[in-house]
Amino acid sequence: MNRAADRRRRGRTPLPVAAGIAGWAIPLGLLCAPPAAAQVEVTIDPARTSVAVGEPLRVDVHVISEAGSPEAIGTLPANGFAVLGTSQSQAMEFSFGMGRNVQRVRVTQSYTLQPQAPGTFTLGPVQVRLGGRTYSSDTVRVLVRPGSGGTAAPVQPVPGWSALAPTPPPPPAEGTTGEEVPLSACRRPDGSALPATGADGPATCTVVRPGLFLQLDVTDLQVYLGEPLRMQIRAFVERSEVGFSVGALFSQLIRQEPSLEGFLRTNLERRQLDLDTRSIQGRTYLWTTLRDKLLYPTREGRLTIGAAEAELSVPDLFRPRSLRRRTAALPITVLPLPAEGRPAGFSPNNVAASLAVEARASPTAVRVGESFEVTLMLRGEGNLAGFRIDPPDLRGATVLKASDRVVEPTADDLLARRTVTFLVTPSQPGEIDLADFGLSYFDYEARQYRTARAGTLRVAVTPGEAPAAATAAGGEDPGTAAAPTTSPTASIRPRDDLARPPAPWHASLLFWALLLAPPVSLAGAHAWSAAARALRRRRGQVRPADVFRRSLKTLRRVARGRSGDDPAAQLAAVETALLDYLEARAGEPLRGYATADLRRRLVAAGFAEPLVDRLVAQLDSCAFGRFAPSASRERGASETARAAETVLRELERAPATPPGGKTP
């Protein structure tokens, strides 16, 4: 028998016709869906609509667009509020469905505001320039309540960060031990003791204990306001207490996070735990760094890094026991920024070290009314995301902050990066000196105030074309005509990379042909298969392939013990499955023959003699097993079914020629 006939004989199990119809109907519904136009949405989202005087308020301006990134985002009108800082983030969103492939850009401009006086104030609207058009947001009203007298000075927050609220430590559970590292156990990294008062510099707090212990490391015990300090919590677990799932054990070890009230933070934890081995006091420990953060103090005085707690469940022969360990509650002294040499209007958020500022302008030659970009690139140690970078006042030009992007430090690179782009629109010809672009900051390493400027950077501005209204007016001197009024956003030239997106994919005929071909073909194949089966049933024809699948299903059910019948009925079902397939292959009834006669007829039908011998042995095993003791039948039914399945598969693969010389 050739391969084509063999495949037709075996066949394949078709999927439900409904699946093919559904696969065809869904793309048809998508075909009828009309494409939607691109949208731009600008909203203002304050964290609260009621605050007290001096209380920080975060306000987010969201720009959601299907036409690319905005070219410029105007400043937030906030009368009655002081702007403490700004930051910007951008995300891409993709959605598929209803015949559309939509790509959205979400840009969030965050402002940290501080109300100056009680009353009701209006925030907004914010104007956004995109694709040659200007979009405006709605306004939001905020109620400012009078502040309580005698309270501490308000915290100067940094946008994009939030302080953790302190959590009171829970009491030790019954049957557990809670051990906290005392403050006296804190040492210098070289092992020397800390002074009783006025401690400065790095510190390590740990007490080695069997089973589990924690180690707290900080880079400095005395810092300036806004100066970063690094905090690390390491866990040491004795090797004998570690099971098979080491990663899960360490990831679930911290039961209570340290309280960081008064600190803002940057997480430096790696996504993958790096485990190491260390031998301490005759014991072998596995250790890793569980928490790694940069902390930025937000107020002066004494702050405390709260105790963290870890818990390890240890299996025991009689009852499991639990090991609890706590780190030390470490005090940090925060010094105020010095008043000597402080620039006017200085923001306490501008604290850094090793700060490098680069600036560039593009293009360096424009006409009146045309805009150019000035980009400031900052790199250094500190919370650059909270730096207040205001646009300077340039004579004869309007300055607008266009974008602000921050790259946070990591465990491998502790330098933060921030890129701020300004759009400058000149209103008169001449040369613009950009040396005023920059900022003032406090260098905590040098302990003095410094100013970083753009350096020598100039842009040439040539006269623009005279407006049509001025040239058409008669009797007027063109030289005395009033200069055209320009808007900071009206003169922005569109960029090629921010143009509107091309036509969607579903507008192409090839796209729909490729999309509809698979479900239509699948539905046609299922319909043809169902019609062929119905025709065979109407004619009374039986295909060996259909009988093979039915018999194979019966043998598998018996082999797995899922038939639910007694062992004798199971053996009878195995015998029936084999005889049904033999009759379908031979094309004649074979029940009622003796073993010798059945063997001769099968050999005469063209089956190989070794295969016939195994088949006859299986039929005899089913007949004898029905009369065997019940215990033997229960053990032999599943084994007989598995052996019969092997024989059935060999019969299905073996070619045979029934009486008459035609292949079934």
Please give a structural write-up.
The chain is of the alpha+beta class and 664 residues long. The chain folds into 5 domains: 3-34 and 522-538, no CATH class; 40-145, Immunoglobulin-like; 176-335; 351-466 and 481-496, Sandwich (Jelly Rolls), CATH 2.60.120; 542-653. Strands 12, 13, 14, 16, 18, 19 and 20 form a 7-stranded antiparallel β-sheet that branches. Strands 28-29-27-25-31-32 form a 6-stranded mixed β-sheet, with no helix packed on it. Strands 1-3-6-5 form a 4-stranded antiparallel β-sheet, with no helix packed on it. Helix 2 (17-32) packs antiparallel against helix 5 (509-539), helix 6 (544-559) runs antiparallel to helix 7 (567-586) and helix 7 packs parallel to helix 10 (630-653). The longest helix has 31 residues, at 509-539. Residues 1-17, 33-37, 149-178, 466-476, 478-499 and 658-664 have low confidence and may be disordered.
**Rg to the nearest angstrom?**
40 Å
Question: How far apart lie the N and C ends?
Answer: 10 Å
Taking pLDDT < 50 over at least 5 consecutive residues as the criterion, the unreliable ranges are: 1-17, 33-37, 149-178, 466-476, 478-499, 658-664
* Number of separate strands: 33
Q: What best-fitting shape do the alpha-carbon axes yield?
A: elongated
Strand content: 25-35%
**For the report, how would you describe the main beta sheet?**
7 strands, antiparallel
How does the helix and strand content classify structurally?
A: alpha+beta
Query: In total, how many domains does the architecture comprise?
Result: 5
**Which percent range fits the helix content?**
10-25%
**What is the averaged pLDDT score?**
77
Q: How large is the count of helical segments?
A: 10
